[in-house]
C-alpha cells in the first residue's frame, strides 16, 4: 500500500493542509472534496474530535433530489450515508480523543491522481505510537465506485487493537428500505428515488487476512494485538447506484458493480482511476510558467471541473457548488451553461453533450413554465433540479439576515438564452450533427420562440421586454435589460440560422421537426421582426449601452469609498438604496461583452467596460471572471490578471471562509476561460479555431489543449520569444488563425509561428 498512499512529488499538483484549524475546517472540506460527477465526498479530516476518526464525510449522489410536501418546498439534493466511518480503539481507548492532540496531521489533495490522502501520527500516548495513512477516491473510470484505504503502522507498543468500520448518517433525509450486512437500500420519501450502497471491507495484518466480525447493518469489526513494526491495511470498496423510478430497485446494479470491483482488486480500481485521470489531464491541463499561484489555481479549477461532470448521465447537470457542498441544494443555474460549458465543449465534448441533453430532457418543463406565464416556447427554470420544474425558493434569508422575496424564479429569464448560447457553442466546437438534429435544434427553436412571444411591440415601433431581472440581481423587475434583450436577439438569430441550415442540409428532418413544433413561415417572419426591432439600450451617439431602461438616471455611488468593506454593497447600502443606485451586483453589460464579443466593434467594448467596471460591487463569485475575460481580450492583461487572482482567491485563499457550502464551480470555470479565451485569446467557429494571445507580463508561457470537430490541439505561447507552437495531436488537417492570419495545421509536426509581426499566410 505504501506507494499508493504517497502523494505525487511535484508540488504543483498538490494542495496540502497541516495541523488542525477548527475555524476553517468546513471550508477545507469543500476545497479537498473528491468527486466523479456521480458521487461527491467532502474532504473531511481523517482524524477529528470525539471518539471517532474518519468522520463525517458527507457523500452526495448526483440527481438524488427530493421535495418535501411542505408549502413552498423546493427540491434538495439528499446526502447518502457516510461510508468512510472507522473507529479505532487501542486497549479500549479511542485513538483520537481530540484532533488537537495529534502529534501531526496532514491532508493532501493529489490533483493529478484525483485522490485525497491523509497522514497523522499519534505518538503522545506512552503505551503505543501509531502512524495512520489514508486514501480515498471515487472512481473516474467506474463512477459507482468508492474506495477507502487505511494503513496503520505501529511504531511502538503492544496493545489490543480494534477497528470498527461502519456507515453512518444512513437515514438523513432517506427512508431505509432494507439494510443488511453488506448492502443497504434507501428511498427518498417523496420522489421515491432509490439509492443502493454495497460494501466489501477487508483487513490484513502483516499480509495476513484477519476475518471480520459481522455486526449487521453495514458494520464490521476486527481485533488483533499490535507489536512494533506491524503494518495493518484496511480496504473498503463501495458501490453506489441510484434509480429514478419507485418500482426500480438499484440493488442488483450495486452488487454487480461491487462484484466487478472485487474481481479487479483495489489495486486495479486505483490503477483504472488513475488512468482515467491521466487521460482527463492530457486533454485539459493548463500550464503556466512564471506564476505559481496561477498555475495552482488553474490545476485546482481543472481538478474540480473534471470532477464535476459525468458524460454517462444525461439526467443530471452540475449544481452551483457541484457535488462539494450544500449551498444552493444542488440546483443548476446559468453558471453551468455560461461559466462551465466552454471548458467542457473544448476539452471534454462528451461531458458538454450530456449537460445539454439534460436541458433537452427538461424542455417540457420549460415549455410548461412559459405557458403558465402566458408565453410560447421554452422558459427554463432559473434554478433547476431533476425534473426541470422551477426550483427557485420564493423567499430566503438575505445577507443582512432578513427574509427577502426572491423574484428570480419568475423574472430572471435570460437563462433561456444562456442555454441556447451553450447549445450553439457546443455545436461550433464539435460539429456534432446528431446532437443538433436530435436535441440542439429543438432547444434553439423553442427558446427563440419564447423570446419572440415575450417581446412586445410598443408605440415606438420597437419590441420591448419588460419586467425582468438581468445578471445584476440588485435591480429587479426592470425593463429592457440590455443583456436579456441582446441575448434574446442573438437567440432568435440562431433559431433562424438553424431553420435555414436544416432546410438546406436535412430537409426531411426539418419537415418533421417544424411540423411537430407547429412552426410556420408566418411565425418565423414575426421572429425576424422582433430581432430587427428589439430595443437594445445602445446610445448611438456615445456607443454606451444602458444596462436597463432608466439606469443612467440612478444615483451614482463611488465604490472606491467602500473599498475596505467586508460585506456586499446591498448590505452596506440596504436593498432599497442599492436598487435606486447604479451599483451593480455582477457583470451584466460586461457579461454581454464577454459572450458576444463580435457584436461590439471598434471602441464600443472598451468604453462600456470602463463605464461599468467601476460601478460593479462584485457581489457574486461569478463577476470577476467576466471582467477578467473582457479585460484580457481588450488587451489589458495586468487588469485581467488582477481579476484572475481575485477569482482564484475565492476558493483558495485562507482569508475567505465562505466556501463552507462548496466550491464556486462557476468561478473555477471562469479561471479557465480567463486563461484560454482571455489571455490566449482563443475563439472558435464552425470553420476553425483562432488565437490572439496577450499574456500578462509575469507569465513566461501558457500551454493548453483544446478539441475542435474531433481534433485535439496543443497550443503553447511563449512570452519572451513571442511565439506560438501549435501541434495537431489527433484528427484531420485544419485551419488555425493566428492574430488574423490563417495557417494550415496538419499531423506532420508542430507549427512554430512568430507573434512579433504580421505573418505571411501559409495556408
Ligand atoms: C448569482 C447568480 C448565480 C447564483 C449561483 C447568485 O448569487 O447572482 O448569477 O447564478 O448565485 O451561483
TrEMBL record:
UniProt key word Transmembrane: no
Signal peptide extent: none
Annotated positions binding substrate: 334-335, 585-586
Example GO molecular function: carbohydrate binding
GO BP, sorted A to Z: carbohydrate metabolic process
All residue ranges annotated as the Glycoside hydrolase family 65 N-terminal domain in the record: 17-243
Residue ranges annotated for the Glycoside hydrolase family 65 C-terminal domain, each copy included: 686-745
Every Glycoside hydrolase family 65 central catalytic domain range: 299-673
Keyword annotations: Glycosyltransferase, Hydrolase, Transferase
Pfam family, any one: Glyco_hydro_65m
InterPro entries associated with the record: 6-hairpin_glycosidase_sf, 6hp_glycosidase-like_sf, Gal_mutarotase_sf_dom, GH65_N, Glyco_hydro_65_C, Glyco_hydro_65_M, Glyco_hydro_65_N, Malt_Pase/Glycosyl_Hdrlase
Active site: 473 (proton donor)
Family to which the UniProt record says this protein belongs: Belongs to the glycosyl hydrolase 65 family.
UniProt name for this protein: Glycoside hydrolase family 65 protein
Taxonomic source organism: Phenylobacterium glaciei
